Amino acid sequence: MSRYLPGPEASMWDPEQYALFASHRGRPFVDLLARVGAERPRLVVDLGCGDGPLTLSLTRRWPGARVVGLDSSPQMLDAARVLDTDRRVEWVQARAEEWDPTTLGAPVDVLVTNAALQWVPGHLDLLPRWVDALADDGWFAMQVPSNFDAPSHALMREVAARHPRAEDLLPVLHRAAAVAAPTDYLGVLASLGLDADVWQTTYEHVLDPEGVQRSPVLEWVRGTGLRPVLDVLTDDAERAAFLDDYTAALDAAYPRQPWGVVLGFRRTFAVGHRPPGPREPGRRRRLGRA
Ligand SMILES: C[S@@+](CC[C@H](N)C(=O)[O-])C[C@H]1O[C@@H](n2cnc3c(N)ncnc32)[C@H](O)[C@@H]1O
Asked: What order do you get walking across the sheet with 195-207 strand by strand?
C-alpha cells in the first residue's frame, strides 16, 4: 500500500445504482462468511455495511447476536433502515478509520467488512485496532476488490488521461494502490496472533443476460469505482464526453455474448480467528482452522 489519497467517502453513494447487481455483489460476502466458524456470537459488527441486505443476513445466521452496521454514507444507511423493518440492527454513521470499537462496550465476536476497505485510506495500519477489539475465539473477516488492473479500471484511467479534465481526474483514480497484497493481509493477521486464512478468487460475472442495458459494465462501475470521476465531472458536457469515450472502450473490452456480458472480477479475502486462551502476538499457529 504505497500511497494514500484523500478518501472519496464524503461523496454521494447511490443505493439504487449499487443494488442493480445485488446478487453478484452478494456472492463474495457469502463466500467470506462461509469461512467464519462462529457459532453463537454475542456481538457482530459489519464495517462499511452499505445498504443493508447483507448485514441483515447476519441477523438471520445469528439470531441471538447484537448486530451493528457501520457506514459513512447517510444515503446507504437510510436505505438500510428502510429494509430493517424489525429494527434488528444498530445502524451507526461513522468513518471506519475514526471509529473506536471500545464505544461498543463489549468485545466483538465477529467483525466483518466486505467490499469497503478499498475506500478506507491506511486500512492495513488499522487492522491491529480492529483485531484488538476481538473477543477470545473472535473472528475478523474482510474482502476487498483486487481488480484495479482489470480493463474496467485501466480504461477508466486511460480515458481520464485524454479528457480535458485529466489533471483533476487522474489523482482521484490513483487509489489503485489502496489495496494491499494478499500476503500483506496474511502477515498482519498472523503477526497479531490470529489463525489466518487468505485467498483470492476471480468471479466471472455474467451481466445483463436479458440484453436490456446499453453497457452493463458501465452500470456496474457507476455504482462503485466510477463515483469519484462522476463527482469531479459535474458539468453535463464534460461528463458526456467521458462517458461516450469510456463506453466505447468498454464495448471493445467486454463484448456482448449470446449469454450476456462477462465481467471478470478478482477479489482478496482474509479471515482471522483468535484462538481461545492468552494473547501471544507473533506466535506461530496452525493455519486453516476456519
Ligand atoms: C461497495 S460498498 C459495500 C457495501 C456492503 N459492505 C456490501 O458488501 O454490499 C462500500 C461501502 O463502504 C462505505 N464506506 C466508504 N468509505 C467508508 C469509510 N471511510 N468508513 C465507513 N464506510 C465507508 C460506503 O459508504 C459504502 O456503503
From this structure: 89-93, 66-71, 43-47, 108-114, 134-145, 261-273, 195-207
Q: Is 114 in the pocket of ligand 1 (CB under 6 A)?
A: yes
pTM of the full predicted structure?
A: 0.88
Annotate 165-201 with b (16+ C-beta within 10 A) or e (fewer).
beeebeebbebbebbbebebbbebbbebbbbbbbeee
* Residue of 103, 220, 232 lying closest to 164 (CA atoms): 232
CA distance 214 to 205: 17
Which residues pair with residue 205 across a beta bridge? 263
- Ligand 1 centroid to Cα of residue 283, in Å, is 32
Give the number of the atom of ligand 1 that is nearest the alpha carbon of residue 53. Answer: 9
CA of 75 to the centre of ligand 1 (A): 11
Q: What is the CA radius of gyration of the chain?
A: 19
**Which helix (DSSP H) or strand (DSSP E) does residue 261 occupy?**
strand 261-273
- What separation in Å is there between the alpha carbon of 54 and the centre of ligand 1? 12
Q: What is the pLDDT of residues 233-253, one digit of tens each?
A: 999 999 999 999 999 999 999
Q: What is the mean pLDDT of residues 27-47?
A: 98
Instruction: Using most ligand atoms within 8 A of CB, pick from 4, 5, 9, 54 the residue to mutate for ligand 1.
Output: 9
